[in-house]
Specification:
- With 164 residues, the protein is mostly helical.
- The protein is built from 7 helices and no strands.
- α4 packs across α5 and α6 packs antiparallel against α7.
- The radius of gyration is 19 Å and the shape is globular.
Length: 164
């Protein structure tokens, strides 16, 4: 599959989302499409996963390195995020679930006694990614801890939270 064929779904998504919104793509004579960052914002998780698989190996390595992991781990995490996003958006059960697509856990993580097929592993990946891209990780973690406190009658071990 050629890159131009890969890009068609993103182009269609951008056109759908910008049509009639007044979003400007710069000088229409110079640029047919909006800036790359805007197109990535419009892309689905599946499209982002596909685009990542189509870029050069050096680009994949550079992107994965920004998140402090190796390419196979980051590629797996994109799949995990896609599946998780779809489960959440379609109101599927995510609490005490055994995920079919399990996140790969980097060797550097101290990860004893935690099942990577449970939701806690997915939440750990999300936290790691948020910590690498900005200041959103701590408020996100606090919100998750508040949620767990609000529902103390539910056993957090069911999502794979370690007992220690």
């Amino acid at each position: 599959m050629k890159f131009t064929e890969t890009w068609i779904p993103v182009d269609d998504q951008v056109k759908l989302l910008t049509e009639g919104t007044g979003l400007c793509c710069g000088n229409a004579d110079e640029h047919e499409l909006p800036p790359y960052w805007m197109m990535v914002e419009c892309a689905t998780m599946g499209t982002l996963e596909l685009l990542f698989s189509k870029v050069s190996p050096s680009t994949r390595t550079a992107v994965a390195s920004e998140f402090g992991v190796k390419v196979p781990v980051f590629k797996n995490w994109l799949s995990v995020l896609r599946v998780t996003r779809n489960a959440c958006c379609h109101h599927s059960r995510v609490w005490n679930r055994e995920w079919g697509v399990c996140p790969k856990i980097p060797n550097a993580w101290s990860w004893s006694g935690v099942a990577n097929g449970r939701t806690f592993a997915v939440l750990s990946v999300i936290y790691h990614l948020l910590a690498r891209i900005g200041d959103a990780a701590d408020p996100w973690r606090a919100g998750l801890e508040n949620l767990l406190e609000d529902f103390q009658d539910i056993d957090p071990r069911k999502i794979g939270v370690p007992s220690d």
